[in-house]
Amino acid sequence: MKVAVIGTGYVGLVTGACLADIGHEVICVDIDKKKIEMLKKGHSPIYEPGLETIIRRNKKKGRLSFTTNTGAAVKDSYVIFIAVGTPQTASGKPNMSFWKQAAERIGKAMQGEKIIVNKSTVPVGTTELLKKIISRYYDGEFHVVSNPEFLREGTAVQDFMKPDRIVIGCESAKAKKVMNELYKPIKAKKLYTDLRSSELIKYASNAFLATKISFINEIAMLCDNTGANVKDVATGMGLDKRINPLFLRAGCGWGGSCFPKDVNALIHMGKEHGARQRIAIAASVVNASAKVLPVKKVIKHLKALKDKRIAVLGLAFKPNTDDMRDASSITIIRELRKAGAIVSAYDPVALENAKAVIGDIEYHKNPYAALRGADAAILVTEWPEFAKLNFRKVKKIMKRPIIIDARNFLNKKMLKDMGFVYEGIGF
Ligand code: NAD
Q: Where are the domains of the chain?
């Protein structure tokens, strides 16, 4: 099938590359010329394990190409995906300007019957709006589909190829048939719904997962105050099949490009439609506390932070990605600096992106350089390499051996036996 993907970011690029890999002829479109130039040379503009190999393989086979020309890509394709960003605004409502621009451009380029699939995360009713926008420019036959994406950065390729489910909101038998055909090589449960339910499934799923994390984070705060161990509590809860152990790991809060924005969008949608989303609001409030908790723990040990050197290990919002959007490290570093600390940070892949978001702190290309002379260290992102650090060396180079493990990731017993002051989150 001939497919165009409008928006070549984390979702669009993975969608385009993977659809090419299962045999479709895909053209990826972006307004960012630099991105498209890189991709034309076979380089991925984002860090995503396995993605570059798939891009190169399919480019070579002539099944994957890149352009900045939306009109030409739309004209030449039968299925058109919209996968542009829908970032949040201050009110929590998504900024739909990129999406609107993409929809308008598709409308203007329509020629012949096409299936237009909305993959961006959008408020309920948006795919109906897509139909209206296209109809302004084109009076021939076309079908709209809502097909939210559930991939996770860091495991995006695997998530796309082996998803738990594929949700397809559509109104016509034709759209259903085409989508079924398009995804045929991917073995997963396909759920067909109406457009609005499909759109809400995405927000409800993300808000539910974020709430699950906030729940265990709040339990972790109670563990801190009672002496219980949140890892044992979570294990005990997770053994109940109705609860399951996933997303029950306490830490310094959820971030990234999706959870904060989608929870806020759900809250906003609830207000707009007279159905206040009180649980999502509470999850968000708990998350704000979870993000500052590691700093409070450092203050507990060091008292004043003025001119204290604090090493921050890990900046990306989670391991295996260079994405810094709404990363907990941003809040933690802001709070440390507010308290007068000198921050020295290390991340294996997110340093460049972090510089643009966090600004003027010390950035280091290896963890030991960041830890040298530190009065305390906060592990913010659980990159596997942090578990393999030479802690004998770490103890020697730090000024004080204080480790706040904000992801409960390190070997607590080993570190304590070595003489570190170790504190996790509820652990
Ligand atoms: P992104 O910011 O990484 O990529 C968006 C891309 O769209 C950018 O490259 C941008 O230049 C491009 N773009 C903007 N306007 C355009 C236009 N008019 N024409 C062509 N290209 C345009 O965003 P993302 O993380 O890939 O997210 C895309 C959507 O998918 C969002 O709605 C997001 O909520 C959703 N989503 C994201 C993830 C994730 O893990 N990142 C997971 C599931 C769903």
A: 2-193, 206-423
Of ligand 1's listed atoms, the one at least distance from the Cα of 105 is: 18
Domain 2-193 falls in which CATH fold? Rossmann fold (3.40.50)
Ligand 1: residue whose CA is nearest its atom 28 = 85
CB atoms within 10 A of CB 181: 11
| CA nearest neighbour of 131 among 147, 148, 118, 149 | 118
The dihedral formed by the CA atoms of 51, 53, 55 and 56, expressed in degrees to the nearest 10: 160
Q: What is the CATH number of domain 206-423?
A: 3.40.50.720
Active site residues: 258
C-alpha 84 to ligand 1 mean position (Å): 4
Write the DSSP assignment of 55-102 as a string of letters.
HHHHHHTT-EEEES-HHHHHHT-SEEEE-----B-TTS-B--HHHHHH
- CA dist 402 and 181 (Å) reads 56
Question: What's residue 118's pLDDT?
Answer: 98
Residue nearest ligand 1's atom 20 by CA? 30
Whether residue 258 has its Cβ less than 6 Å from ligand 1: yes
How much is the pLDDT for 271? 97
Tell me whether residue 260 is exposed, middle or buried, using C-beta atoms within 10 angstroms of its C-beta: 0 to 12, 13 to 18, 19 or more: buried
Asked if 124 and 197 touch (Cβ cutoff 8 Å), the reply is: no
Digit-coded pLDDT (tens) for 124-165: 999 999 999 999 999 999 999 999 999 999 999 999 999 999
Q: Do domains 2-193 and 206-423 have the same CATH topology?
A: yes
**Distance in angstroms (rounded) separating the CA atoms of residues 424 and 406:** 6
Whole-structure pTM over 0.85, yes or no? yes
Whole-angstrom Cα distance, residue 289 to residue 215?
Answer: 12
- Write out the two tokens for 2: 């001939």
Determine which residue's CA is closest to atom 17 belonging to ligand 1: 102
Ligand 1 neighbour 426 (Cβ under 6 A): no
